[in-house]
Amino acid sequence: MNKDFISIADYTKQEIEAIFNLTAELKEKTKHAEEHHICKGMSMSMIFAKPSARTRISFETGMYQLGGYALYLSPNDIGIGKREAVKDIAQVISRYNQIIMARLFDHAHILELAEYATVPVINGLTDYNHPCQIMADIFTVLEHRKHLNDLKVTYIGDGNNVANSWINLAAKLPMHLVICSPSGYEPDNKTLSYTRNQNISTVEVTSNPVAAVKDSDVVYTDVWASMGQESEAQERRNVFMKYQVNSELMKHARPGAYVMHCLPAHRGDEITDEVIDSKQSIVFDEAENRMHVQKAIIAKLLKQG
Q1: 262 is an active site residue
Q2: Which terminal CB of the chain, N or C, has fewer other CB atoms within 10 Å?
Q3: In this predicted model, what pLDDT tens digit does every residue of 162-179 receive, in sequence order?
Q4: Which CATH architecture has domain 8-130+288-301?
């Protein structure tokens, strides 16, 4: 395992599978209320430049279940890259805690944090990628399908950090991945090129939602305006309205195709109530699995799993 968990692209297929195996084991222990204090006496600093419900709850609860302690540091506690140099924060926290999780805006800050920290750093999200989310997502797909063979995933919406992480995953696990975004909102070109050059998966980019979801096993969406893009919300709503995941669009996917969303969802915008609340939706399973996957990542980085 690498020292840090910054991007799925940094990991091998075998390492990803090892994380999933440990995730399943820890999830089973949690389900049966079996104590698994494998990180007893250890602590984690959680740096939040971007606030989040799921990220805080899942990491804080997960570290507690592992027998450790998680310290929440709000945007007011650490103005990372503003009040204090990133490399200074990295070195100071490394003297106090055994591991760091950071949810930031600037991807360069997570890279600098990892460079100067002497303890493992987990990327809880940046404007470029969201690796813990996609690890939870694909683990959820594996749980429901029991395998990942002949998998077609269609991501519909903004070519954002979530889309980039799906593309990173496709460089490691074989799949047919379709990214469907309006013109001008496509995902990162360098990330696309990197994954296509690996020749492991088929990765398409299109602007046609109906064609994109054809034969899809998973239809995935995310908010149209991410945190920090609030001023663009109305403009984006106008552009993205035909990319809404609704019952009509789902008719063109494979029968029984799963619906996924990383949450929070803007119901009535990128996804309708009847779809997110349908039997095809595994949205809340993936939300739960954030905690289980992250626990496995923590344990692996701390050499406890």
Answers
A1: yes
A2: N
A3: 999 999 999 999 999 999
A4: 3-Layer(aba) Sandwich (3.40)
